[in-house]
């Protein structure tokens, strides 16, 4: 019986396309031993998932802001005049957009 450091064997199947992709990634990583590469990826590899809840909140807020901007534009187009109050509201809405962006809601989220 062999004296192996690693006694447990794991097996999994891949498609031909997946195997080709693994081979490409191995070459990019300059690793020729598939077992070493797969072990390294299984232990140290990173999986990125997206959290779309923050993006949904941002879209909802932007939709509300867009609706308000459209209402202001409609008022301006209907009588050719827009009040200082409406201009202030518009500026405040734009500030909200910038605050959303600075808070990271307009950036890609991952966990």
TrEMBL record:
Any Pfam family: NikA-like
Listed InterPro entries: NikA-like
Protein name, entry field: PcfF
Species of provenance: Listeria weihenstephanensis
Taxonomic lineage from the root: Bacteria, Bacillati, Bacillota, Bacilli, Bacillales
